Amino acid sequence: MLAAHMGVVALAPSASSQPSSANEVQRGIVYTGQGRSPMKLDLYLPKGNDGALRPLVIYIHGGGFTSGDRTNFGAPLPWGTVEANANELNARGYAVASIDYGLAPANQWPAPLFNVKAAVRWLRANAANYRIDQDRFAAWGDSAGGYFATMLGVTGGVAELEGQDGTPGVSSRVQAVADWFGPSDFVTMQEQTVIGLPHDVGSPEHMYLGCAPSACPDVARTASPVTYVDRNDAPVLIQHGALDHIVPIGQSIELDGVLTKAGVQHQFHTYRGADHEFAGFVDVRAVKQTFYEFLDSTLRRR
């Protein structure tokens, strides 16, 4: 069952990372390695060489800020593997980049966000090499990845949250955000939990922030997407299972309210039979169709 609410609305790539004429997958491209282990991304490019610039979907994996990688280790989630979803998007004319970022507790706020923004900057700086339109970027993520996708959408003009990783001076803005059940407010997350994981002392959020949210509300607030929403933000799609026992549905309800108040164009879809990662009694094909329609409405040239 679906309920929907509509709101108001450079580093040079190495020779080995250059796409072939058949646009095969480019794996393990280093987008930044400043002072630490190199961060990598995979590029999935549509077949064909008609010369047209393609919109780009940047996928950011979940894993509670502490685990996961750009391939999800090849494991399928209820909505499929990273590669299968990239292939579906390629067939619809989208290029796809799946990115790594630093994991907590070794990498704490705001370093992982700086990684994610470095990936966007690298992709924009090198867009012409892959026939990607640098003015049509969408960020898409699930769980912690949904959080980072939303942060990209709402902090594009916040200088202190840019970092210096990768290709400084290039814009990290995105033109659309698809947030699949991501955290939006670390201050309120614990109180919204009914049955499920803790979100305060000893939680994944604690490891990401470097402190329990209740002990450092100013840090928690500064790291929360709801803090930065304004009317100039990119359009947002929120999709969240109402039975989510890991990221409370209240996080998306709260984000929906803040976006509505700010006048940001957005959609909010809840799925009554779905738990985290859309597990449960839900038609995942319908979930993905809504996502595809959102991308078409925001990134396709008319």
State the main characteristics.
302 residues; alpha/beta; nine-stranded mixed beta sheet; 9 strands; 19% strand
Number of helices: 8
Catalogue the unreliable spans. Answer: 1-22
Mean pLDDT across residues: 91
Strand tally is: 9
Assess the beta-strand content as a share of residues. 15-25%
Globular, elongated, flat, extended or rod-shaped: what is the shape? Answer: globular
Largest sheet: 9 strands, mixed
Q: Biggest sheet: strands side by side, in what order? A: 1-9-8-7-6-4-5-3-2
Task: Give the distance, in angstroms, between the N- and C-terminal Cα atoms.
Answer: 31 Å
Secondary-structure content class: alpha/beta
Helix content: 25-40%
Return the string of H and E elements: EEEEHEHEHEHHHEHEH
The whole-angstrom Rg is: 18 Å
Mind sketching the topology for me?
Layout (H helix, E strand, L loop, with lengths): L1 E5 L19 E7 L6 E6 L9 E7 L21 H10 L3 E5 L11 H15 L6 E11 L1 H11 L21 E5 L8 H4 L11 H6 L7 H6 L13 E6 L7 H14 L3 E6 L12 H16 L3
Parallel strand pairs: 4-5, 4-6, 6-7, 7-8, 8-9
Antiparallel strand pairs: 1-9, 2-3, 3-5
